[in-house]
Amino acid sequence: MTEHLDETTGAQLLAGELPVDEAEAAHRHVASCRDCEEFVAELARVEISSDITRDSKPVFDSELRRGATVGRFLVLGRLGAGGMGVVYAAYDPELDRRVALKLLRGSSREDDVRARLLREAQAAARLSHPNVVSVFDIGVFEGRVYFAMEYVEGVTLAEWLRGDRAWPDIVEMFVQAGRGIAAAHEAGVIHRDFKPENVLVGRDGRARVVDFGLARAADGEPTPVPALASSADPDETQPAMRGISDRLTRTGTLLGTPRFMAPEQFAGGEITPSTDQFGFCVALYSALYRTLPFRG
């Protein structure tokens, strides 16, 4: 396959509807073509977002303005956005500190939608490690799930790698990120989407793994939620947190970033800590040699 994937082929690939030989060819092409990799990843995000908003009227079509309040948090400005949420810089007046505040795009009145972002918060909240971004608070604001997390002044590892870096410095930064992933595995959490864009490098030189949006419990059981001091009504948020498990992970659906995905993710196989290790090694190799470790 030499031509770029069109939308129909990409959608069929995501849905597992292509014949085996065509699917294998498509996977090889996506692994070697940055444009198609980004195209397929965006299709996956659109598919999920479509499931979320198909029967829902969007809430907050525009961005939150500076000075808006979400729970007890005061919005200071927009930091960035991902496939499922928007991240704002915010201020916590009770603890007198700046936080990063993530809100789900559009409406999250559907139970499965709330569950997806709450799962991300759960996965991160159960971790306490210097190389993992801390989660401070979880709540629901006008139908939108939000969580407040550690504010890191710095850049993503992907941005950091664009500089002139010596290989020992690159290895050291990845060692730090690896410690964060290892801590997640020890806590029974698999990230499933490790890549340089999901690691923050602070001005203090410390790497922190972030964005557990695709995370799942390694044992497949519901993820217990640590006690958190939340500004939201406990009766509103706690029931939504209970019983959230990897039933949200749809077998056969391509979730992750193709360039860093392990074979079992493409094949819809069992996800284990080795899945993160594969993505970690691909990212490290690419950082050191400025190329992927394989083609197809």
What would your notes on this structure say?
This protein is α+β, with helices and mostly antiparallel strands and 296 residues long. It starts with 6 loop residues before the first helix and ends in a 7-residue tail after the last helix. The protein has helices spanning 7-15, 20-32, 34-53, 111-125, 157-160, 167-186, 234-241, 263-267, 273-289; strands at 69-70, 73-81, 85-92, 97-104, 135-141, 144-150, 154-156, 189-190, 199-202, 207-209, 216-217. Among the domains are: 7-53, no CATH class; 155-214 and 249-289, Orthogonal Bundle (Transferase(Phosphotransferase), domain 1). 39% of the residues are buried.
Poorly predicted residue ranges? 46-61, 219-253
Main pleated-sheet profile: 6 strands, antiparallel
Radius of gyration: 19 Å
**Large-scale geometry:** globular
The level-1 CATH class of the domain at 155-214 and 249-289: Mainly Alpha
Q: In the CATH hierarchy, what is the architecture of the domain at 155-214 and 249-289 at level 2?
A: Orthogonal Bundle
Report the CATH topology name of the domain at 155-214 and 249-289: Transferase(Phosphotransferase), domain 1
- Quaternary assembly: single chain
Count the DSSP helices. 9
Residue-averaged pLDDT, rounded?
Answer: 75
According to CATH, the homologous superfamily of the domain at 155-214 and 249-289 is Transferase(Phosphotransferase) domain 1
Distance between the termini: 11 Å
Question: Quick one: how many beta strands?
Answer: 11
The percent of residues in helical segments reads 25-40%
Structural class: alpha+beta
Strand order of the largest sheet: 1-2-3-4-6-5
Beta percentage is 15-25%
Order of helices and strands: HHHEEEEHEEEHHEEEEHHH
